[in-house]
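Q: What would this chain look like folded?
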Amino acid sequence: MMNDLFFSPDPTVKAIARNLYEGVKNLPLLSPHGHTDVRWFAENEPFNNPTDLIVTPDHYIFRMLVSRGINLDLLRIPRRDGSRAEGDPRTVWDLFAKNFYLFSGTPTGLWIQEELKSVFETDIPLNEKNADILYDHINACLKTSRFLPRSLYERFHLELLSTTHRATDDLSWHEKLARSGWQGKIIPCFRPDDVTDICQLDWVENIRKLENLTGENTESYQGFIHALRARRKDFINHGCQSTDHGVESPYTHTLTDIEAEKIYSRALMGKASQEDRQQFMAHMLMIMANMSTEDGLVMQIHPGVFRNHDKKLYEWYGADRGADIPLQCEYTRNLKELLNTYGHHPNFTLVVYTLDETTYSRELAPLAAYYPAMHIGPAWWFNDSFQGMRRFKESVIETAGFYNLTGFVDDTRALPSIPVRHDFARRIDADYLAEITARGILSQKEAEVIIQELAYGLTKRVFHL
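A: My prediction, written as structure tokens:
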């Protein structure tokens, strides 16, 4: 019997959903924006243990555990300086298994349950009683060639995987991978937040790194811009197709060179204000958009997040530790300058994401339905769930249609979750299309074409793959 996960209990809708899902379930996977480690594939060594593969890289997991008072040192999460608390990975796994009930009803809980079944081929439930049995089972799997990083890439039917890197990353693992002769396609995504956010704790240090990498004099604003152009070229030479910008606000505004130089100089002296930060980041979005019209890199914006909300955690463990909290966001006014300048440019593609669902139908769908350059990114982070993906489609399709979307973007750090998350997205899309087909809004033929686009075609075209 077919697994009808996420499909409507209505027999008419379910029958249509099954048919649509069958048509896409075996399509290749495109992952144009993610956070897995390219080093895994360059070295192609066995993963150390189940904890470091499944728990350690996944902020979806440990942010929930932190919410129940479990310290990150107990999970042996790496600190900002690269050190880790002493301990046995099995002990961390036992703690995770003991608290797995916390994930009931969440997408993370469903992802992990399906990973165990489809990737690790076991029906043993994850709980305190079975923790050691599962740990040993997964550990034994990881010692076989089928679970080497490149083997998993091939088993998952990945066609492309993008890994996200800061402007100050040297891309040496991408170079090593390219020299290996392996045919898998793994490309970098350029994320320059480490040098465009002038209030980051290590911003000055990052500017020095940028200078060392490019040979440009970053003591001046113009030298900084030259260095960014050079870094983009380096990324493109390694296959890069997109940039990514994690900004608090989508506010866009062009400063004069004199204004930008003054703010940049204050930042180098450690005297930049929050107003300076807001203006400089708005300016840098315009600069990055302009550069994209020149080199063709797809520009992604992830706004509406108060990143590293937990100050002490950020100071001790660094960024991307689960303490990123959504903010109310506004797009119509904030994106006006950027879209007025580049929204009709034939060589510009803009993908906008949001965590503020109130903007779906009010702002994002109308903007994407008008400006040729703009596409709406899929439900992201706290919204990449069954209900969240449904709400997203229900809110944007009537205004923006299907063809102003990007298709699915998994944005994952945990490698085993990639095929599961794509499979879930295809199921949810099949169910949504089945429902509106049953209502007569789409014909069966239209639904069959659109499910192919959502699962594969849109992503391939929007991200120039």
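The beta strands are 29-31, 158-166, 186-191, 242-245, 298-301, 305-306, 325-326, 350-352, 374-376.
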